[in-house]
Write a structure and sequence with these properties.
The complex is a heterodimer. Chain A folds into 2 domains: 212 residues, no CATH class; 33 residues. Chain A is 33% helix and 17% strand. The model of chain A has no long low-confidence stretch (mean pLDDT 94). Chain A is an alpha+beta fold. In chain A, α5 crosses α8. Chain A has a 7-stranded mixed sheet with strand order 2-4-6-1-7-10-9. A two-stranded parallel ribbon of chain A has the order 3-5. Chain A contains 9 helices and 10 strands. Chain B has 10 helices and 10 strands. In chain B, α6 packs across α9. By secondary structure, chain B is an alpha+beta fold. Chain B is 38% helix and 17% strand. In chain B, the strands form 2 sheets. Chain B has a 7-stranded mixed sheet. Chain B has a two-stranded parallel sheet with strand order 3-5. Chain B folds into 2 domains: 213 residues, no CATH class; 31 residues, no CATH class. The chains are: A alpha+beta, B alpha+beta. The interface between A and B is large, with 76 and 70 residues. β8 of chain A pairs antiparallel with β8 of chain B, so a sheet runs across the interface.
C-alpha cells in the first residue's frame, strides 16, 4: 500500500476519501446504515469510519456505478426541462451519450474510507480543498509531466464526473461546489470548495510530486512588484549563463 | 451590437469585460498608458474606460500567446519551470509549449478591452468574474439548450492563454478559479475563489438567450428539504404515469 501520509500536511478541513469498487462483499467494514445520493457518500465518509454501500444504500447515482439502467424518463431527457436544467428534452438527452458510467453489474459494493483509515489502495481519492490547497495539488498533478489541466462536467450527474470519469479514463477531474444541480439542491457542501478526484494510477505520481516539490514557492510572497523584478533578474541571469541573445524583453 | 443587457441582472461585483484581437489600431480608443501583464489587463479594464494595448504595453508572456513574438528559448525550452518550483524538470515544463493555445504569428498587433457597459465593439471574448452561485447560472445557461459538456482547460502557468486565446481559437467556453495560475497568483490580481468565465463570440448570443429563457434559481434550489422531496416525487410520478399510459395504449 502507498503512503498517503503526505495528505495530512494539508490539514484539510474535510478529510480526503478513498473509494473502492468491489464485486464481492467487503470484509471487516460495516454497511452504510442509510440511503444517500452517490454525491453525498464521500461527504458522509469524511466524518465516519469506513463503510460500504450496496445498491439499497444508493438513493441516487446508482446508474452511474452500473447498479441500474437509466429509466426511460431520464434517458429520454424528460426531467431536464421540468427541473429547469435544460431547455428541451433533446438538450438533456444528449448528455447520456457522453456521461461516463461504469458497465452494468460491474460494481456491487462501493467502499468509502477517510484517507487516514484506508485499508488498501483506493480506486479513487476524492479531495475537498480550498483554492490554496487545490493550487498545490493541481500543480503537483503536472509537476513532473507538464500535463494540461483538463476537467469535465455537466449540469447534472456530477457524481459521474467524480466517481466514474477519473476511474474509467485515468484522468484527474475537478469541480467546484455550487455547480452540479443535485449536489447544490442537496446542499452537500458549502459553495466554493474545490473537489478533486484522483484515479488510482495517478496517485503514486501525485504523492511523489507532493513530497518533492516546494508547496509555497517564495515567488508567492514577493508581491506584484517584487515578482516582476525577480523574474527579470532571474531571466537575465539565465540568459547570461546560456546565451546573451536570449535576454529577457519587456 | 449584441444585446448583453441580461448580464446586468447578475449585479456582478466586477464588471464583465469584452476583449477584441485586432490587426489594425482601433479608432476611438485610448492606448493603455502603462505596462501590464496580459492577465492584469482584465482587472484594469473592469475599472477603467475602454482602452487598447499594443506590444509595448505587454509585460510577461502575453506577446507569445498573441503571436506578437516567438517564445524566448529560455522559457520555451522549459528552463524556468524547475527554477521557479512549478515543474520538476525542464522537459515537463517544455511540454506545455506544444499545446498552449497561441494566435498565429503576426495576426494581432492590438488588443482592445472594454467593460461591458461601455462596449463599442463586438467582443471576440467576453470575460466574466463571478461568484460561484453566479457561475452556476452561467454554466447552466451554456448547456441549457444544447446539453453540452462543461469542460475546462488550463495549465499552472500562462493562464492568459486559457483565459483569452483558447476560447477564441476553439469556440469553447473556458473557466477557472482564481487562486490557480502561477503568474496571476503571484501578482495578486484577484482574491481567491472567484470564477473567471471566458465566453467566445460565437457562444455569447446563445448564452444570453438562454439566460433570458431559463429559470435562474430552479425550484429544487430554493425549496425546503420536505418540499424538494415532494416536488421530485410528484414530477417523477407524473412522468412515470405518462410513460406507462403511453405504453398501455
Amino acid at each position: 500500500m502507498y503512503d498517503y501520509s503526505i495528505f495530512k500536511k494539508f490539514k484539510f478541513e474535510r478529510k480526503p476519501v478513498g473509494i473502492k469498487y468491489s464485486l464481492s462483499k467487503p470484509e471487516g467494514i460495516k454497511q452504510l446504515d442509510k440511503s444517500l445520493g452517490l454525491c453525498e457518500m464521500f461527504k458522509e465518509a469524511q466524518t465516519s469510519p469506513p463503510f460500504y454501500a450496496a445498491k439499497e444504500n444508493v438513493q441516487c447515482g446508482e446508474h452511474v456505478v452500473g447498479m441500474l439502467d437509466f429509466p426511460p424518463m431520464m434517458y429520454s431527457g424528460q426531467l431536464g426541462p421540468i427541473f429547469s436544467m435544460f431547455k428541451t428534452p433533446g438538450a438533456n438527452r444528449r448528455i447520456y451519450d457522453y456521461v461516463p458510467i461504469l458497465p452494468k453489474d460491474s460494481v456491487k459494493y462501493i467502499i468509502h474510507s477517510p484517507v487516514d483509515q484506508l485499508a488498501s489502495d483506493p480506486d479513487l481519492l476524492i479531495i475537498t480543498a480550498n483554492p490554496t490547497q487545490a493550487e498545490i495539488i493541481l500543480r503537483a498533478s503536472s509537476y513532473s509531466d507538464g500535463k494540461m489541466w483538463s476537467f469535465k462536467g455537466t449540469t447534472c450527474l456530477a457524481c459521474a464526473w467524480m466517481y466514474a470519469h477519473p476511474y474509467l479514463n485515468g484522468e484527474l477531474n475537478c469541480t467546484i461546489t455550487g455547480l452540479g444541480f443535485s449536489m447544490k439542491a442537496r446542499q452537500v457542501l458549502p459553495e466554493g470548495l474545490i473537489i478533486i478526484t484522483v484515479p488510482f494510477d495517478l496517485l503514486p505520481g501525485l504523492i511523489d510530486n507532493l513530497n518533492d516539490m516546494e508547496w509555497e514557492p517564495y515567488w508567492f510572497n514577493l508581491g506584484r512588484e517584487g515578482f516582476i523584478k525577480e523574474v527579470k533578474k532571474r531571466s537575465e541571469e539565465m540568459a547570461k549563463e546560456l546565451d546573451p541573445s536570449y535576454s529577457y524583453r519587456e | 451590437m449584441s444585446d448583453l443587457s441580461i448580464f446586468d441582472e447578475f449585479k456582478f461585483e466586477r464588471k464583465p469585460v469584452g476583449v477584441k484581437f485586432l490587426l489594425n489600431r482601433p479608432a476611438g480608443l485610448k492606448k493603455l498608458d502603462k505596462g501590464l501583464a496580459f492577465c492584469e489587463m482584465l482587472g484594469e479594464a473592469q475599472k477603467s474606460p475602454p482602452f487598447y494595448a499594443a506590444r509595448d504595453n505587454f509585460t510577461c508572456m502575453g506577446p507569445v500567446v498573441l503571436g506578437m513574438e516567438p517564445a524566448n528559448p529560455i522559457f520555451a525550452s522549459g528552463q524556468v519551470g524547475p527554477k521557479d518550483g512549478i515543474y520538476k524538470e525542464a522537459r515537463a515544463n517544455r511540454r506545455i509549449y506544444n499545446y498552449i493555445p497561441k494566435l498565429a504569428q503576426g495576426t494581432v498587433r492590438y488588443v482592445a478591452f472594454s467593460p461591458m457597459d461601455e462596449l463599442t465593439f463586438e467582443p471576440d471574448v467576453f470575460i466574466i468574474t463571478a461568484a460561484v452561485n453566479q457561475a452556476d447560472i452561467l454554466l447552466r445557461a451554456l448547456c441549457y439548450s444544447t446539453g453540452r459538456m462543461i469542460t475546462t482547460r488550463s495549465t499552472p502557468v500562462i493562464m492568459c492563454a486559457w483565459l483569452y486565446v483558447y476560447p477564441f481559437v476553439s469556440g469553447d467556453l473556458n473557466y477557472f478559479v482564481t487562486g490557480l495560475g502561477f503568474g496571476m497568483k503571484t501578482r495578486g490580481i484577484l482574491p481567491e475563489g472567484l470564477m473567471l468565465i471566458s465566453i467566445p463570440y460565437d457562444l455569447l448570443s446563445m448564452v444570453a438567450q438562454n439566460l433570458r429563457d431559463m429559470e435562474w434559481i430552479p425550484p429544487l434550489h430554493r425549496l425546503s428539504e420536505e418540499e424538494k422531496g415532494n416536488q421530485l416525487q410528484k414530477t417523477v410520478e407524473e412522468l412515470r404515469r405518462e410513460y406507462e399510459e403511453s405504453t398501455t395504449d
